[in-house]
Amino acid sequence: GSGKTYTMLGQADDEGLVTRAIRKIFTDKRRVEADTKGKSQVEITVELLEIYNEQVYDLLCKEGKADRKSVRISMASQTIEGNKVVATSTEEECMKLLELAQSRRCVKSTSSNATSSRSHLVFTIHSIRMDGEKIQHKGKLNICDLAGSERLSKSEAHFAGGALLQETKNINKSLSTLSNVIEQLQSGSKSVAFRESKLTSLLCDSLGGNSKTLAIICCSPLTSQYHESLSSLRFAEKASNVELKATSTFSC
After folding, report:
1. Measuring CA to CA, how many Å separate 137 from each of 129, 130, 141, 214, 249?
2. Are strands 107-108 and 79-81 parallel, antiparallel or unpaired?
3. Are 171 and 150 in contact (CB under 8 A)?
4. If residue 214 lies in a helix (H) or strand (E), which one and from where to where?
5. Which residues pair with 57 in a beta bridge?
6. CB of 52 within 8 A of CB of 133?
7. Per-residue pLDDT tens over the stretch 22-55
8. What pLDDT digit, counting tens, does each position of 125-164 carry?
9. Which residues, 6 or more positions from 75, have their beta carbon under 8 angstroms from its beta carbon?
10. Residues 244, 188: contact at Cβ < 8 Å?
């Protein structure tokens, strides 16, 4: 792999983006509550979802003997229905939930990568600042660890057939839809096809709403991965030309 999951999650002696974000959010929570001498409270909740074969699963909730529960997206509001949203008071609690979700995620070996992520992981942190009973400020951070696009000739998923081949097709299809959505946003299209994949449905407010969005492209230094790296860089160029307008709807 090119290091996507490593960039997002890191390891014990080299923290990834998710760990750093969690630490920053809880540091700010403690600062706000200390500065206001307890008059303001910051509530933090998290949800962890997996998109596998164009189905959305809740990684924090088991269903029977399965490690995850299938949930649906409301097409009217583009929000998840029936998933588990967990309140956390410390970064340690938050990290334990992330570790639990990661252990339930679908990972398999291919000819390209011994630990290939076969799904997209969407980690969402919600924060609400309360002054008594009044909501003073609220926000949402989506962190998405995407499965990488694959050439069948290199991953050899077509030889394995069955589930591995179907996974590859769905991964590539969802990433292609993401690229199309980015192109439509870039061109200022009035109609953007967010609903054509579960990934873009979940990320519609991050991609085209009141938000700030950062895309990190991981490229392999191997010459054998030249075409994949070039494709990733072309996608990055498209994404960098999309203009989002983030505005504050709450004062703090």
Report:
1. 5, 7, 14, 22, 8
2. unpaired
3. yes
4. none
5. 50, 70
6. no
7. 999 999 999 999 999 989 999 999 999 999 988 9
8. 999 999 988 888 889 999 988 887 766 655 554 444 567 7
9. 195
10. no
Name the residue with tokens 């203009």: 243
Two tokens at 231? 């494709």
Q: Which residue is associated with the tokens 């010459």? A: 223
126 phi and psi, to 5 degrees?
A: -105, 140
Element (H, E) at 247: none
Q: Cα separation of 240 and 132, whole Å?
A: 41
Instruction: Read off the DSSP letter of residue 195.
Output: G
Element spanning 58, H or E: strand 55-58
Question: At 156, phi and psi to the nearest 5?
Answer: 60, 30
d(CA 113, CA 73): 31
Residue 82 DSSP class: S
**Per the structure block, which two tokens stand in for 194?**
């967010």
Sequence length of the chain is 252
* Residue reference for tokens 């490229």: 219
Tell me which amino acid residue 209 is: G
- DSSP characters over 130-161: EETTEEEEEEEEEEEEPPPP--HHHH-HHHH-
155-199 per-position pLDDT tens digit: 554 444 567 788 888 888 898 899 899 888 888 888 888 889 999
Distance of CA 20 to CAs 24, 26, 42, 218, 228, Å? 6, 10, 18, 18, 28
Structure tokens at 156: 């050899």
In whole angstroms, give the CA distance from residue 97 to residue 217: 26
HSE value, Cβ hemisphere, 13 Å, CA-based, for 211: 16
The Cβ of residue 203 has, within 10 Å, a number of other Cβ atoms equal to 22
